[in-house]
Design brief:
about 15% strand; alpha/beta; 3-stranded parallel sheet; 8 helices; globular
Length: about 260
């Protein structure tokens, strides 16, 4: 019997695409738009504090995002305290962007690792205020459980440092998080190429959020297309169920009944 897939549902909203992409680092707004289309994404992140609110017409980033088909996910990039992150979310709401937010509270400028204490603090406030919170966090299962218990709509553990392209550094921790929480688990940060995306999905992750891997590729549009296929293939492989690993060879064709045996 074929395993039937279920759609990705976050806070009651259904998505057919399991790939979330960003809006930064692209060679141009036009290339960004082409990448969004090639990836098939239905959700894109926007760094609120880096938006040029004075830009008009073609210079305005948001004019290149098709908001009829894409859910906007304002993020709190460049925030280092819970208070700053909460204020940034309020600004996003005032600008009419969304009450869905990617919560990102950083603890270190070099590694861009999350400050989990400040992240938890901000999440508690934002959930109480009615925001749909998707927090970027470490791959620590205890923190993931606390965020889910607070009422976050998903948890987004890093696979590797932001923009590093190192791939899935600790698949075991991701498996622990998948077992521990009931909300969607979205890998955020560290994916470098299509095979990384496939591995994350084969582990059972519900979706992947990426930006640099597409935007900084030599051919961003082609990479966006590759990421779309990789996410779909990885998801299909997870549902199919891989064969168990063995220490020795196993014949592809049965040996019983062969002539002379």
């Amino acid at each position: 019997m074929t395993a039937q897939d279920k759609p990705l549902v976050i806070a009651g909203k259904t998505f057919s695409s399991r790939l979330i992409v960003g809006t930064g680092k692209y060679p141009s707004h036009a290339v960004m738009k082409q990448c969004h289309e090639a990836s098939g994404t239905q959700m894109v992140t926007v760094a609120v504090r880096r938006l040029d609110l004075k830009a008009k017409g073609e210079d305005a980033l948001l004019n290149w995002v098709n908001r009829e088909h894409v859910t906007l996910l304002p993020n709190t990039a460049a925030c280092y305290t819970a208070d700053d992150a909460v204020r940034t979310c309020h600004l996003a709401e005032e600008l009419g962007l969304s009450k869905w937010v990617k919560l990102e509270v950083l603890g270190d400028e070099k590694t861009l690792y999350p400050d989990v204490e400040e992240t938890l603090k901000a999440a508690r406030v934002l959930v109480k205020e009615g925001f749909t919170v998707l927090p970027y966090t470490s791959d620590d299962v205890i923190t993931a459980k606390k965020l889910a218990d607070i009422g976050c709509a998903a948890v987004m553990p890093l696979a590797a440092p932001i923009g590093s392209g190192l791939g899935i550094r600790n698949p075991h921790n991701l498996r622990l998080i998948l077992e521990a929480v009931k909300v969607p688990v979205i890998v955020d940060a560290g994916v470098g190429t299509a095979s990384d995306a496939a591995v994350a999905m084969e582990l059972g992750c519900d979706a992947i959020l990426m930006n640099t891997a597409i935007a900084a590729a030599k051919e961003p549009v082609r990479m966006a297309r590759a990421m779309k296929w990789a996410v779909e293939a990885g998801r299909d492989a997870f549902l199919a169920g891989r064969i168990p690993m063995k220490a020795y060879a196993s014949a592809s064709s049965p040996l019983d009944g062969l002539v002379g045996r």
